[in-house]
Structures are given as structure tokens and as C-alpha cells.
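Q: What changes when 5-amino-5-deoxy-1-O-phosphono-D-mannitol is included in the input?
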Amino acid sequence: MVRKLPIAIKSSWKFTYFMCGIVGYIGKQKAAPLILEGLKRLEYRGYDSAGIAVFQDGSFDIAKKVGRVSALEKEVPRYRLVGTCGMGHTRWATHGSITDANAHPHLSYDGKVALTHNGVIENYASIKKFLITKGHTFRSETDTEVLCNLIAYHYAKQAGLAGENRFVTAVRKSLHHTQGTYGIVAMNVDAPGELVTARKGSPLVFGIGEGESLVASDVSAIVSRTQNVVYLKNGEIAHLTLKNFSITTLDADEVSPVIDRVCWSIVSAELGAYHHFMEKEIFEQPAALKNTMRGRFSEDGSTALFGGLNVTANEFSGIERLMFCACGTALHACLVTEHLIESFARIPVECDYASEFRYRNAPLARNTLFFVMSQSGETIDTLAAMREAKRKGYRVLAINNVVGSSIAREADGGIYQHVGPEIGVASTKAFTSQLLLGAMLALYLARMRDMSFGSGVRYVEALKGAPDLVRKVLEQAPHIKKIAQRFAHSTDMLFLGRMSLFHIALEGALKLKETSYLHAEGYPAAEMKHGPIALISETCPSVFFAPAGEIFNKIVSSMQEIKARRGPIIAILSEGGELPPGLADEVIIIPECHEAVLPIVASVPVQLLSYYIAAERGCDIDKPRNLAKSVTVE
Ligand code: M6R
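A: The predicted holo structure follows.
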């Protein structure tokens, strides 16, 4: 059955990330400029090549180009591309090298079907063999072209079926034969003005505008045209026409759609006065931290509250162990969380790379509560680790930014970060928000055990003060920029810290590597002399976290060891902290703060340092080479 608009509108905001970006359009406007605009917003998902297909005069006009969407845009005037129905793709290569031929959209050998795809078709080789026996020919090395031809094959076989049913049935039959993940938009030459879209694993959302419909990998590509959107679920196929749409499952059962209202506007996904999203997101942190905390403290101000955990206080107090899994920056947030939970709540915590946990068959104690952390909620290793833990019978909770992500949907409960869209590939505001939630979780667990009311109140007050402390560090941006300019052309850089700040050292090194391609390592400050000290030279500065506290003097000793070997030192000190004269080449001051807030505050200088070093080195900060915002393939 075809559903006419409008249908009940539910209010929420959602934002989804994945590798490769897809945009489709049907309406009355020329499709190409709108698709290009959408692709630019999705470039953070992959930027190896881009392409666009527009239906016009009974066939598809397709332009494809290796490189950024801007390279494709330059190519577009060579084509007519005047039709009002089309689709585009920005690619992060999986199957097949980075060439124009491998760029999407792909066209079936008979020119009947055009396809864009995000994901991996695992059994493409056997399907390709079969199709070759049926006379299909291929122009690329991609799994997508194979799927495109499979749809064409089934389409040819459905010749008896009428119009729309025939194409949707062909897509459905083809997807039944595919193993792997996909988010697809397909067009058929016999049905101009129609798009068929389906997903399994890779996210897709379609928007219902005034006399037009759009489909994309995430809402940032369509929110400038409409805020009424439908998030397609795994195993669903949507058929969009100019006037209506229908959703069915892979088994052809009808689905009642829910139209969501996106509550953030395009402004949150735009740069404004900033040069890069990374810069914007670093400076958004005071507001992001406030949003993460909002409504999450008890009335007496002594503990944290979490609405969506689906674990009773009673169940929580019986938990004997916690396990955290994540990847990249999110894993660093887990490591800090481990430190805080163990130190304040005295519960043993284990952290693991999600990619390792999923295969290493770790024994877990029975009353272990399992957490995953993920900004995007789509990272494949984190998702797999979570499924593995669930398979073993554990309850899994998620700390996640993207509402409605795969991880959020599959978790037994969780905590949303509420920091809005994070677009820069280098995670910044999502990281400090995860640190904050980790600190709040430590408080919540500690208050169920031995932490006193008074200590709880002081802890809450400290967390509430975090946004202002972060703001104070941000005021030092011009000073940090100068330090960055001084050291931007170093050969290596070490980040050294102890306790919770060892994990911030790991994060500092990761941030610098990914944004500036400068070799960096994070190490426990005292461990440095067991190996990395061999790197020390005049061109290898060390960033030391040296906050006030009981181990300050120990850290100063480590600095002396570096200085004795002519290594430059950038010291991050608490207000009032003093070093022997001449020991540090540069000093960055952070406000003195509670142990639970320190990792948040200490993260900001290294985020700024990485950002400004990358800028000085002329790097592509928001889209570093070889990376994508969310890693959804193994
Ligand atoms: O979306 P997720 O938090 O699951 O992503 C995990 C990592 O891929 C991510 O943090 C990555 O390390 C970032 N590029 C770091 O800035």
C-alpha cells in the first residue's frame, strides 16, 4: 500500500555517520546542484572519489571523478545533467582501487539500472561469476557493480510484473541473494522520477519536502530542504516517488513509517565563522558539556541520574565488574572512565579494543556489566564486540552520541551524549562529553557504595564547573597557536602523562597523528625511559601533563631526563605550578580542578595544539588522508 503524506510527526534529533555518502533527489528542481550540495556535507564519510547520475531523456547521464566532490563539480559542466531525479555518491574505497571507473553510481551492463551503494557485498565474487555466465559484462572492480547487475538480472526476469512492483521486486530479490552490508539507492530507466532505497547495516534516511523527496546517508545532507524524515531500518526497502512513498520489508511485508522531525537546523552542521569543523567543535565544548549534563543530577545535588540505562539501582549495586569496549578516541575515554570508577567507586573495570575483544573469547565474570562507547554508534568493531557480549548473555549499555544509531538500537540501555553533530573526522567535543559521562558514571556508582553525601556534592559542583574551566583554556588558543607554529615541523612528538592523564597523552598523540601526519606517541611519563626516550632529540618535543598533585615531582624528574638529552619540553601545568627555571621551553596553564574534571580540562590544550600544528603544516584537517569519520568495515 502506498502511504499519502502527512503522517504523525514525532519530534527528535538524529544524526548518523558511516563510510561513503549517498544522496538521492526527486522533485521539480534540477537534481544535480542539490545532490552536489548534499555530497559536500557527506564528504567526511569518504572522499576518494565522487559521482552523480541524473535521469534524463530516457537514460542516465553519469559523471564520476577521482578526488573530492569539488573535482566532480568542475567536471559537471561537461555533462548536461538537467534532470530532476538523480543520485550521487562520495566514496571511501573498499573493493577496487580509487579510479573513475570504480566510482559510483554504477550502471548495469544493459543500461537499465543505476546504483549507489555504501557497504560491502561479501559474496560479490560468486554472484559475478553467475552473472558472467548470463552474459553480463563489467566495467569496474567493485562489488556495487555486481549488485547493480544482479538487480538488472532480476528486473529482466520480472518482465510480467507491472511498473513500480517490478523494480522493487527485482531489488528485493537481489538483496535476498546478497551477504554483507548495504545502504543503496537504485534507479530504473523505465521508472523515471522514482528511487528505491534499502539498507542493512549502512544507514539511510529519507526526507519528505514540499513536492520533493530526498534520500541520504545522514540528515545533514537533506536538512536544508526538509526536517521531516524517515529513518529506514535494517531489512527495509523504501520506494519513493514524487508524490508518495511506501516501505516494505525484504519479505514484502508492509511497514508503517514513523516520520521524525529533525530538531537541529542546518546551522549546526555549518562552519559559520570557523575555518574547520574541528576548530568549531573544540570551541563548542563548553556548550556541549552543558548539554551532556543537563537534567542529569539528583535534586539533592549529590549524584548523577541517567534515564535510559534500564538497570535498577538495586541491580547496579550488585554489579561486581565492568567491561568497556570501544575504538580509537572513544577507547581513550573508556580508559579514563576505568581510572575514575576504580578510584571513586572501587569497582574493578576492564577496557579493551573492541576489535580485539570480538575475537579473543575473553572470559567475563557473571555479574559484569558491559559498556560500549561510540560517538557514531556505527563503528563495526564496537558493534561486533557488543553483539559478542550479548551472545554471551551480558547486558550491554551504550554511551553514544548519535540518536537512533545501530549501537543505540541494539543496546539494552544507554546514555546519549547530546553534543549535536560532530563533523570533523578528529573527535573532540564527543570525546570530552564521553569523559564527562564516564566521570558521572563513576560518581553514580561511588554514591551507591562508599562515597559520602558531602563528597558527592563537591564532585557534582566540580562537574558543573567544567564548562567554565574549559572556556578558560580556550582563551589561551592564541598562545597555543604560537607554540604550535614553533614545533609544527618537528620529526616526532611524545605525549607523556600519568594516571588518568596518561590516557589523555594517548589521545593527544592520536589527535596529532591523524590531523597533521606527524609521528607521535603517548606514553606513561615514567615508562618513557624504557624505550621511547631513544627518540628524544632537538626535533622531538615532549608534551608533559604536569598537574598539581602528589606525583608532580615525579613528573618533573621525567622532564629533567628529557631535558638532559636536549629534548624540547612543552609543559601543561596547573595554575600556580612552578618548574625549575629553564626546564620547559613552553608552558600552558590549565586551571586547578577536581580529579574527575582534570582529564576534560587537560584534553583541550592538546586538541588545540594538534589543530594548530595541522593548520601550520597545511593539512586537510577535517578530512585527513585515508580516514573516515566512522569505520564501518573491518
Ligand atoms: O564513532 P566512534 O566513536 O565509534 O569512532 C571510534 C573511532 O573510529 C574514532 O574515535 C577515531 O579514532 C577518531 N577519528 C578519533 O579522532
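Observations recorded in class: The two ends are 38 Å apart (CA to CA).
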